[in-house]
Design a protein that fits this description.
Elements (H helix, E strand, L loop, with lengths): L2 H31 L23 E5 L4 H10 L3 E5 L2 H9 L11 E5 L2 H11 L12 E12 L1 H4 L6 E2 H9 L4 E2 L6 H15 L6 H16 L7 H11 L6 E5 H8 L2 H5 L3 E6 L3 E8 L3 H12 L1 H9 L15 H11 L1
Parallel strand pairs: 1-2, 1-3, 5-8, 6-7
Antiparallel strand pairs: 3-9, 4-7, 4-8, 4-9
Length: 334
């Protein structure tokens, strides 16, 4: 082979090797973190108005809404779901640096957790995350007491928080969701509002006047996810839990189960009335934020909420203390 032709072939081989190595390296980079190197708008900076995320819509859901999220993931293409306690997600969002990509496209949670995150971010001199259309209402469920009628008989209907305090003093074990769960803050807030007789109150005054009463209720039974407590109430009888403060979505199926009917379990509203609102908070902007918000408030999600016992979104006040009070309350009792 002539020397000149040999050199030309060697050069072509070298170029082919470089191109091949670059292609493999690019493929490994994409496979390694699931996020493309270029942004959705193709400009290579990854901003694209949605934080640079590509691929499936990623939704992080609180424990109480796992059934809904899993149904959406199963029935809708291009959706990836992660279920975790509210406090786990909240902690990551409070610590999120300005301009950093959030851990998901949306958070399906219970109000007022998004506002609680912003309260804690403000305390840390960080900008708020939830503004504009967020959070979007998705479903609602009343806060109720699930229990054995003889345990709740001394209380009026609806059940006042003060009566639960009295019953705890006579050895009633009242299940309250763990502080890390979304319903932990909701139920503690309802009970605190009931003891004070108002939803907006000074936390220092509350603790001085009613802190011991609330602590007695919270410590009367083992903390756990609310659905776990309700399930154990019907499975184990009056031993571990005599009553559980939870949502109607959790309580009603338990009370209407064969074992619940056999044990005459009752579902009683609380005084003052309160409710849990499931909300969608988009963590990204642009079309992707609109897309995930529409998905989690759309037909598939609404059917999943209904199957899980949730009602359509309700209007008006929830009957819960504001976010800053709930943050302070969680810090004291958490």
């Amino acid at each position: 082979m002539p020397p000149r032709l040999a050199r030309l072939l060697a050069l072509l081989v070298a170029v082919a090797l470089v191109v091949g190595a670059f292609a493999v390296r690019s493929r490994l980079a994409d496979d390694g973190d699931g996020v493309a190197a270029t942004g959705p708008d193709g400009d290579g900076d990854g901003d694209g108005g949605d934080g640079g995320r590509s691929g499936d819509l990623v939704v992080v859901c609180v424990t109480e809404l796992a059934e809904v999220c899993e149904a959406v993931e199963e029935q809708e293409d291009g959706v990836a779901v992660r279920v975790e306690p509210a406090a786990t997600t909240a902690g990551a969002l409070v610590a999120l640096d300005a301009g950093a990509q959030p851990p998901a496209d949306a958070w399906l949670t219970i109000d007022p957790w998004p506002a609680m995150v912003d309260v804690e971010r403000a305390s840390a001199n960080r900008d708020p995350l939830f503004t504009g259309d967020d959070p979007a209402p998705a479903a609602s469920s009343a806060v109720v007491v699930l229990g054995f009628p003889e345990e709740l008989e001394p209380c009026a209907e609806p059940v006042p928080a003060s009566c639960l305090v009295d019953q705890v003093a006579t050895d009633l074990n009242v299940g309250i969701a763990a502080a890390d769960e979304a319903l932990g803050a909701v139920v503690a807030g309802q009970l605190a509002a009931g003891l004070v007789g108002a939803t907006d109150f000074d936390i220092t005054t509350f603790l001085a006047e009613h802190g011991t009463e609330l602590t007695d209720i919270l410590e009367s039974a083992d903390p756990a996810p609310s659905a776990t407590q309700a399930g154990l109430l019907v499975q184990q009888g009056r031993g571990r839990y005599g009553a559980v403060v939870t949502t109607e979505a959790i309580a009603r199926p338990i009370a209407e189960s064969a074992r619940g009917v056999q044990d005459d379990l009752v579902v009683v509203p609380t005084a003052p009335p309160a409710r849990a609102d499931a909300v969608v908070s988009a963590l990204v902007g642009g079309d992707r934020g609109d897309q995930v918000r529409d998905l989690l408030t759309g037909k598939t999600a609404q059917e999943a909420f209904a199957a899980a016992g949730w009602d359509r979104p309700a209007d008006g006040p929830t009957g819960l203390p504001p976010a800053d009070v709930l943050v302070a309350l969680r810090e004291e009792i958490g």
